[in-house]
Write a structure and sequence with these properties.
Layout (H helix, E strand, L loop, with lengths): L11 H15 L4 E6 L6 H12 L2 E4 H10 L3 H11 L6 H11 L8 E5 L5 H13 L6 E6 L2 H9 L1 E4 L4 E4 L26 H23 L4 E5 L4 H12 L1
Parallel strand pairs: 1-3, 1-4, 2-3, 4-7
Antiparallel strand pairs: 5-6
Helix pairs in contact: 2-9, 3-4, 3-5, 5-6, 7-8
Length: 243
């Protein structure tokens, strides 16, 4: 990585910016966080803010698996075999990939885990791995929100496919119903954004992931956020929970 690329070729402003960032980060407390919440609860909006504020690395297990597969790491090769057979990638493998990722310099101050652990077994395996590294999860941010609000949030989303512009029938409607403001082309709904798909994703979330919240609650490290509030308010709640 950085060792092979020649630092002489990096513009001074970039080097200075990175140095200043690292100096600022050096004073931040370490944090190991898990974000839990159903689809549409706003985790994706808050995680980049938290990542920058606390100098953490963002570990999205889906992306990490894909990266490991394309980099053909030993764990990636195993994961690819499982996927090709149509099997789920084992919990041990996912935890192994997280373990690998934690060696990166960007993860020095800690991490944000998003979309994992989804089950209590995964949480236990994650805890074991962290214990072996001499660390532990500091805080679990629970993006609590009512299913009915999620349905309104998600099923109201419409997209202009070629530009990626997004609209919402209630919160950010197009000027004319069903068409893009700029081109006048028809808007579409993503397959995932229908009530039926949301319903099955929410059922899976309640069944598998709510026990994870209980598991961490027993250790007193869960912060319940009111995720139905506007993003700015949720951001303040996150800051309170992490201060």
């Amino acid at each position: 990585m950085a060792a092979t690329s020649n630092l002489e070729d990096v513009p001074s402003t970039d080097l200075m910016t990175e140095l200043l960032r690292r100096m600022k980060c050096a004073t931040k407390p370490d944090k190991r966080l898990i974000l839990v919440g159903p689809p549409g609860s706003g985790k994706g909006t808050q995680s980049p803010i938290i990542k920058d504020e606390y100098c953490l690395c963002h570990l999205a297990t889906g992306d990490m698996l894909r990266a490991a597969v394309s980099a053909k790491t030993p764990l990636g090769i195993k994961a690819k075999e499982a996927m090709e057979k149509g099997e789920l990638v084992s919990d041990d493998l996912v935890v192994g990939i997280i373990d690998e990722a934690l060696k990166k310099p960007s993860c020095q101050k800690g991490f944000i885990l998003d979309g994992f652990p989804r089950t209590v077994v995964q949480a236990q395996k994650l805890d074991e791995m962290l214990e072996n590294r001499g660390t532990k999860v500091d805080k679990v941010l629970n993006f609590a929100i009512d299913d009915a609000i999620l349905e309104e949030r998600i099923t109201g989303r419409w997209i202009h496919p070629s530009s990626g512009r997004t609209y919402h029938t209630k919160f950010a409607p197009p000027k004319a119903p069903g068409v893009d403001d700029v081109t006048g082309e028809p808007l579409i709904q993503r397959k995932d954004d229908t009530a039926a798909v949301l319903k099955s994703r929410l059922e899976a979330f309640h069944k598998q992931t709510e026990p994870v919240i209980d598991y961490y609650s027993k250790r007193g490290i869960v912060a319940n956020l009111q995720a139905d509030k506007p993003p700015q308010d949720v951001k303040s709640e996150v800051q309170k929970a992490l201060s």
